[in-house]
Specification:
Blueprint (H helix, E strand, L loop, with lengths): L1 H11 L10 H36 L4 H16 L2 H12 L14 H4 L8 H26 L3 H9 L4 H16 L1 H14 L11 H10 L1 H7 L6 H27 L3 H18 L1
């Protein structure tokens, strides 16, 4: 029943939509979407961890920590992401990483049989490097927005710089900068489409395969091609998860702002009283 209704709906639309009456086409594209989600998930985790560390490093009192963190952020933030993906992938091909293959569970995923970095880990590394530099500046701005009295009170209680960052500054900064971080994560998810340049079979690459393969074009088109139709569907598949993340960002920015501020004040007060 659903198949008949779906087919009738596609027949109404102007253009060449017959290809999307086939279930295997949707399965093919959804596999690409799932790969894009997994790449984004690993990149988000790594970039957040490194970004927070770099933000704390840039504010460190010691110049031996502050300068390397500054160089890291400024360097990777200035390099185009597409160039960084190509650089990591082809640059890693010159390095013998066969020893990584001996790591339990991860070895066979990270490197191939010749000891070279696989395509997907290369994309994750490039995305993490670039986005960690951007997120470091977002987190740093959040830390700088915290009242100096709060930081000084924590230091007066005998906390070291790292303890102050870990227990007070970073948690408060993450709450304040949550909307900006979520917006950057949306950008990261869309940037997974750049992985297609090194032939990673993510969503956009699979869409290109559909409209560049003559067998599909000749079978489901009447001469005008299926490029626009395929790209439209791919765009919608990117739009849905990005829009959901956008709703989360809006919620954090509006509805959760007052609650977050109250929790901040209560948390700092409890922390100071406990000290």
């Amino acid at each position: 029943m659903f198949t008949d209704v779906w087919g009738a709906f596609l027949d109404i639309l102007p253009g060449e939509w017959d290809i999307f009456k086939e279930r295997f086409i949707w399965s093919f594209l959804l596999q690409g979407l799932w790969l894009s989600v997994k790449i984004a998930a690993f990149s988000i985790l790594l970039s957040l961890l490194v970004g927070i560390a770099m933000a704390v490093g840039r504010l460190a009192p010691s110049r031996f920590i502050r300068w390397p963190a500054t160089v890291y952020v400024e360097a990777f933030r200035a390099i185009p992401l597409l160039l960084l993906i190509l650089y990591v992938f082809f640059g890693a091909g010159r390095v013998d990483a066969s020893w990584v293959g001996n790591i339990p569970l991860l070895g066979g995923i990270l490197v191939d049989s010749q000891g070279h970095l696989e395509r997907i880990p290369a994309v994750i590394i490039a995305l993490s490097l670039y986005n960690s530099a951007v997120e470091a500046e977002i987190v740093r701005a959040g830390i700088l927005s915290i009242s100096k009295g709060v930081i000084e009170a924590a230091r007066c209680l005998g906390l070291s710089y790292l303890q102050t960052m870990q227990s007070v500054a970073v948690p408060m900064a993450l709450r304040r900068m949550a909307p900006g971080l979520v917006s950057q994560l949306i950008t990261l998810f869309k940037d997974t489409s750049l992985a297609s340049v090194i032939s990673v079979l993510e969503l956009l690459r699979r869409g290109r395969i559909l409209y560049e393969t003559p067998a599909y074009t000749l079978s489901y088109s009447h001469g005008s091609g299926i490029t626009i139709e395929v790209l439209t569907v791919v765009a919608l598949m990117y739009f849905i998860p990005c829009y959901l993340l956008s709703l989360i960002a809006q919620r954090l920015e509006t509805g959760g702002a007052g609650v977050a501020q109250k929790r901040e004040r209560g948390r700092v007060l409890r922390f100071l009283l406990r000290g």
